[in-house]
Amino acid sequence: MKPSSSISEPSERAVAAGGGLFDGVLARGPVREAVSDRAWLQAMLDFEAALAASQARAGLFGTDVAEAIAAACRAQAFDIDEIGREAADTGNPVVPVLRRLREAVGEATGGVVHHGATSQDVIDTAAMLVSKRAVGPLLQDICGAAQAAALLARAHRGTPMIGRTLLQHAVPITFGLKAAGWMVGLDTAADRLGDLRDSRMAVQFGGAAGTLAGLDEKGPEIVHRLAEELRLAEPVLPWHTERTRIAELGSGLGEAAGAIVKPALDVILMAQTEVGEVREGTPGRGGSSAMEHKRNPIAAVSARACAMRAPGLVAELLAAMGHEHERAAGPWHAEWRPLSDLLMSVGSAAAWLRDSLEHLEVDEKRMLENLERLGSGNDVGSAVELATRALDARATRSAARDT
Amino acid sequence: MKPSSSISEPSERAVAAGGGLFDGVLARGPVREAVSDRAWLQAMLDFEAALAASQARAGLFGTDVAEAIAAACRAQAFDIDEIGREAADTGNPVVPVLRRLREAVGEATGGVVHHGATSQDVIDTAAMLVSKRAVGPLLQDICGAAQAAALLARAHRGTPMIGRTLLQHAVPITFGLKAAGWMVGLDTAADRLGDLRDSRMAVQFGGAAGTLAGLDEKGPEIVHRLAEELRLAEPVLPWHTERTRIAELGSGLGEAAGAIVKPALDVILMAQTEVGEVREGTPGRGGSSAMEHKRNPIAAVSARACAMRAPGLVAELLAAMGHEHERAAGPWHAEWRPLSDLLMSVGSAAAWLRDSLEHLEVDEKRMLENLERLGSGNDVGSAVELATRALDARATRSAARDT
Amino acid sequence: MKPSSSISEPSERAVAAGGGLFDGVLARGPVREAVSDRAWLQAMLDFEAALAASQARAGLFGTDVAEAIAAACRAQAFDIDEIGREAADTGNPVVPVLRRLREAVGEATGGVVHHGATSQDVIDTAAMLVSKRAVGPLLQDICGAAQAAALLARAHRGTPMIGRTLLQHAVPITFGLKAAGWMVGLDTAADRLGDLRDSRMAVQFGGAAGTLAGLDEKGPEIVHRLAEELRLAEPVLPWHTERTRIAELGSGLGEAAGAIVKPALDVILMAQTEVGEVREGTPGRGGSSAMEHKRNPIAAVSARACAMRAPGLVAELLAAMGHEHERAAGPWHAEWRPLSDLLMSVGSAAAWLRDSLEHLEVDEKRMLENLERLGSGNDVGSAVELATRALDARATRSAARDT
Amino acid sequence: MKPSSSISEPSERAVAAGGGLFDGVLARGPVREAVSDRAWLQAMLDFEAALAASQARAGLFGTDVAEAIAAACRAQAFDIDEIGREAADTGNPVVPVLRRLREAVGEATGGVVHHGATSQDVIDTAAMLVSKRAVGPLLQDICGAAQAAALLARAHRGTPMIGRTLLQHAVPITFGLKAAGWMVGLDTAADRLGDLRDSRMAVQFGGAAGTLAGLDEKGPEIVHRLAEELRLAEPVLPWHTERTRIAELGSGLGEAAGAIVKPALDVILMAQTEVGEVREGTPGRGGSSAMEHKRNPIAAVSARACAMRAPGLVAELLAAMGHEHERAAGPWHAEWRPLSDLLMSVGSAAAWLRDSLEHLEVDEKRMLENLERLGSGNDVGSAVELATRALDARATRSAARDT
């Protein structure tokens, strides 16, 4: 029996999240849906389906039982509002989900649903699934932004402009070197997030206190199969109170936010009326009916705004690492929102930055005028060589990855 | 013409926010609805209605025009999803709201909608209205929790228990003194939030760059009337880039969160199986089907979890205070979410703590047993006098407030 | 017996703190010394001297005993390094300080040193003294910066310049209106800090678990006299685990940091080579030997750098509010450094901003050139009236304060 | 010419940092000295010495010149206080350091000191050197703590105790499984920090605007040799405004802090008087003269206190990632303190936790009594197998590393 095909990717199933008043600005792109309540619920149900499949494969019960459970694990069939309200009685939404799931599969099968698991197993594994599914599209946008930066670096590796330190004219650089710096920052952040997604997003299954009690000696085997089913890593120990996974993911997102803020800020500064070296060329956006002379760099501004949330949200996740004993009395629950918010904010920032850089119009003439304003000369040092080197290193790495 | 009656309180109008998967735990109580997207939209429309009323009173156009605008300013008539999507084109949701509002009132009247205002005027004033409306119920829950602490302090001012330092037995105290400490912290936080609500929630109206341009000399008068209409304070200057109001509110909420965490943590620690001095007595909550001997202090745990968000969210608001020139290129947008999240998280924490303290069952016998465990004596010093003094001070202050 | 004159202000006594490598930039101005280790130690000793004086006044022992103790409470006589090392054994520096103090006064008198007090009483009261003493010079610099902004607002209330939104040209303002906005933010922050200093910096005295045990019925009287001696507020209860005082102070400093960042950022942006509307005129600073055309706005840059620390440090203090039982197992110790760092960073930021604004050179001609660049007209709306109003309100308030 | 031996490790040279009042608690262990002002200054001088050596190797001038410079690059010969004061004039301490260094080597040689470099090159490279040198001892303490946890896990893999969820009794575990969880968290954090130290601590050298101007075509070669001299990584581009290195290091330290808080908190909770399952056995520490029955878990409390600083400090570093153009106007300076503070705080936390765990006395009898209190049975599930598996995985990995 191979890993169950019932665990499909969320994009096929999740109903679109309701669009919020500020979401157009602050929750742009595909990550919003990937961290929606419905996506979380589906991930929780995916855990239950995969658990049943794993236990069937381990011989605890028949495959048909697992298939019946999997068939009922579809988020659309559940009323999220009701579940949310009932969650207050037990302190998390798992109990009301299980009640409905057991009703759906009938009494006989219901008895084996969630066998040997505890609420935290469900939510922690769901957090990993949600994160993994969200990091995918998020990385596409970061890599898209990095690729746009690479194209700018290539096209403008020899385009001279003034370098500015403390926002004062210093000595010449090339715009390509600046863009290459953006690219390296974005690639670095993307690499880290990719590594975390591939190696650290692990299943959590330990039962009431992390001992795999009540499963005879089959516990470890079930953990192994469960990881296989869900295509998550298998941890050496249940990690219900060992939160480095959450912290590393949060930190990785925080670093990505910083790598996004840098180019966004440079675009905003170069787009200033007095500087005028770039402008965002996205059709139909950024105009001001009241002031026709004005073209706002909406995408860069929005990218920066979204990314600015990250430091505080990372601090929330780090401050919640002190989990008491075998289940934390607060710090666990305190992770849920900042994790979703961080994925969404950084995802949105990445989508905006990509948009900004892909539509960036570069005014080489203005760059030259500004450069000559104070007679700063035209010695760009090794700018061209450096930009080229960074582009070559990227190409080499990309080629290595593709083979 | 007296302040317009069309600006009603949100409770009459706002449609219930959708219940999220984690909201039963993390968004308990009435604040959730007060900071919902619908509440924000209504507050934005309240600004437009009040602006028209103010300009009519200042003689810019007829009262009937203002009344027609006010009649259209009802959030239920707007599609939030659509607005949110369109917001991406201009970087905030005001333009799509105005388009719909102008359509609703017809071409002739539409021309004076939003007269002399800019997007930030709408959203900043809405932020103040939303905050003021949310702080009301939030304060009710903090004060409810403080009152519950006061009742515990009164009832148990002479109930001896062991004082604990670094979680080790130290010398005796009374439970009433401990509860009086909770009460003082909560009252202090409530006083601060009440002061901020009453004195610092101010209207924002300045036009494109804060100069009240395009209103001839009537600008200042309109600001005055607008504040009157919306029952907000009138600021000495437009505060579009002077963000101490947002920071103070955020900080006040952060302090409240800390004042909530303290008693929540004490309840959790006293409820430990080995300590057993209190338990939450809310009917139907906290039981565990798997472990009958167990009664989880769900309310205190949830209060702590909600309150733990605050430090990071306050940091977000403080870090966003650097607004460039006459409108910030990112920091302004970066305030919207943490402000709502902070109101909601602290509101939820307050609701949970109130629930915990109002249903707290105190085991005096167990307190005595624990006290005697190490022979720590029974000298409670001035504990009774101190608790009494704190209660008396509270009564005096409360009496002074009522006259 | 009147409040003891032995408790002098720290400036008379504190030996200069060692100058650190980065202190010229990051610890500018008088606050650095006010939060030095020596200042902390002196404040701890001031507590012991005042406690003895209070207990003598309450009749616990003779005035001569108290005077002997006070005479030994001079920080210069203590070796801070040694104390710091020994602090590791008990988890705080109070025990080694007391050992030395008792040695200094001799065995007979030593027996009443620290009578009825616990380590946290010493350090918490010292924290209040240090804060109060540091807020004084800090406020002088904030008020100096506000005054410099007021002078700019007055001188330039009618100086036209372009208003900028999202860093793009919008509509005209006056430089005086911009400076008036800086002034209002700084004044608001200063008012809050002044209020906190005057009303919330309170003595802490409660003994081992906050009950004033071991003092018969004299405990409350001693608290009262101690507050009088140290010119601190008298709290309704010992506040050893009720940390709103620390949180409010931290938040007030965080708000001040934000009020400082705003003008610093505007100065940096206006000083850009392409914009050129202001420059810092401090003699002998900001020049670059390598690039003669360049004049760095060092003071504004440094102000911003110092102020940027605040959000994270405030988050530390807020996250440390959950004090367990009668003495926290970590959160208490976790307050010491961020409190000092916050005072020092905000103090340094204030000193730098004051320097920047007091030496700001305004290029009205350049302002006009920039304004005319896009033909934005010259309608400054009510800018002049608004700036005047803010200046008048300031003068009125200042006059009211002086009478 | 092989890499210069003049760049010795700081332990040989650095003069001990002055011991601060709170350092015994908050700056324990060897990291304090590694991040002292003197260590920073030495690292700056190491940059200058290595730069000269690299340029000599590249043929820019003779080896004797480089050796003369290296001979003068000894921090003891510089007056840190004076440098700190002069730093205010240029906004960083590099200019006053260079003035002294040039004086020391004489006019002829002085002309080539710092050739082609800018202040930020010096400080950024010094930040990497300081970090690398501090992470060494820091890792020794984290690994020491992990090793102590491993020994506890091995010795107690079968020692039954109650598992606790939400601080309530749940089902049995073994103490060894709990300790194995601590071990995994600490090992994970150590691995991350080790990776960062080995691969991401890179030299920074770019000149005034990152183009290696003024070095003809030798710039890239000099970067290469400089990295070799200083045993730092060679970056693909100058990273003066691409701050993922700083962010990753900060995040790694934040994760380590969380991995430290978890066991510290468990120790504190298990050491509670009512629980009594462990106590810290360090001779001569934690006793209370006033209360003989008491033994405070000073080391665990101090570890927690130190580690609690991390989330706010990490937020500072992440919030400072938005570096404008070719040198940031504030965010760069804003990194210096939180980086040092974070290294020191996490280093101190690690030293304390190691001390706590290495001296932990386990009361198996009390564990059994607590376990039996509510009749929770004795089924520890797969606890023993899981702990064993984690220990085996550790041994395998360690063996692989040694070969």
Task: Please report the total strand number of chain A as a whole number.
Answer: 4
Proportion of β residues of chain A?
A: under 5%
Averaging pLDDT over every residue of chain A, what do you get?
93
**SSE succession of chain A:** HHHHHHHHEEHHHEHHHEHH
Note poorly predicted spans of chain A: 5-18
Which pair of protein chains has the largest interface, and what are the residue counts?
Answer: A-D, 85 and 85 residues
Overall geometry of chain A = elongated
Strand order of the largest sheet of chain A: 1-2
Describe this structure in words.
- Four copies of one chain form a homotetramer.
- By secondary structure, chain A is mostly helical.
- Chain A has helices spanning 23-26, 31-34, 37-57, 63-72, 80-90, 94-105, 107-110, 119-155, 175-199, 219-230, 244-270, 298-307, 310-319, 333-358, 364-372, 383-402, and strands spanning 160-165, 168-174, 278-280, 360-362.
- In chain A, the strands form two sheets. A two-stranded antiparallel ribbon of chain A has the order 1-2. A two-stranded antiparallel ribbon of chain A has the order 3-4.
- In chain A, helix 5 crosses helix 6, helix 11 (244-270) packs antiparallel against helix 12 (298-307) and helix 12 runs antiparallel to helix 14.
- Chain A is elongated, with a radius of gyration of 25 Å.
- The first copy, chain A, starts with 22 loop residues before the first helix and ends with a helix.
- The relative contact order of chain A is 0.14.
- Chains C and D meet through helix 1, helix 3, helix 5, helix 12 and helix 13 of C and helix 1, helix 3, helix 5, helix 12 and helix 13 of D.
